[in-house]
Amino acid sequence: MKKIQLAPKLLGLGLVALAAYSFFNRPKKMTFSGSSMVPEAEGSIRIKRDKNKNHTIEIEIAHLVPADQLTPPKEIYVVWMTTQDGETKNIGQLRIFTGFFSKAYIGSLFTVTSSKPSSFFITAEDKGDVTSPGEVILRT
């Protein structure tokens, strides 16, 4: 009678499945480049699908000038998303803070959306609940 050892085969298949899942489920990354209004600003966006098939969006922008120091001065930065359907959505405001060991300003935002994003841009606005974007500061 021949004994079949399933444990090593199952372990191997499990590792292959885990590697494939990790490869196809890794976060997609986009980058922002500086503009004439905030030339030193640079940042990135990580987009990942969660178990509910929503898109989690994590944004971090370094070397950002506070909005009230722009010309003309503004109150806040608003992040906009363009969906694959061509719709433009206000997805939130950047939270601005200084680094722990640095005086450089950093902007961040974490949000979740059911829409599939295709691009992002940031505007400086006088209020956060705007429904149409003003002048674009940064874009992907």
Q: What's the arrangement of strands in the largest beta sheet?
A: 1-2-3-7-6
Radius of gyration: 21 Å
Gap between N and C termini: 64 Å
Low-confidence stretches: 18-23
Mean pLDDT rating? 84
Q: What about the largest sheet?
A: 5 strands, antiparallel
What fraction of the residues are assigned to beta strands by DSSP?
35-45%
Order of helices and strands: HEEEEEEEEE
Helix count, DSSP H or I runs of 4 or more residues = 1
- What best-fitting shape do the alpha-carbon axes yield? globular
Number of strands: 9
Helix amount: 10-25%
Helix-strand makeup class: mainly beta
Can you put this structure into words, describing what you see?
- The protein has one helix spanning 6-24; strands spanning 28-32, 42-49, 55-62, 76-83, 88-93, 95-98, 105-113, 117-125, 136-139.
- The chain has 140 residues and is mostly beta strands.
- The strands form two sheets. A five-stranded antiparallel β-sheet has the order 1-2-3-7-6, with no helix packed on it.
- A hairpin with a 6-residue loop joins strand 6 and strand 7 (105-113).
- The longest helix has 19 residues, at 6-24.
- It is globular and about 65 Å long.
- The termini are far apart.
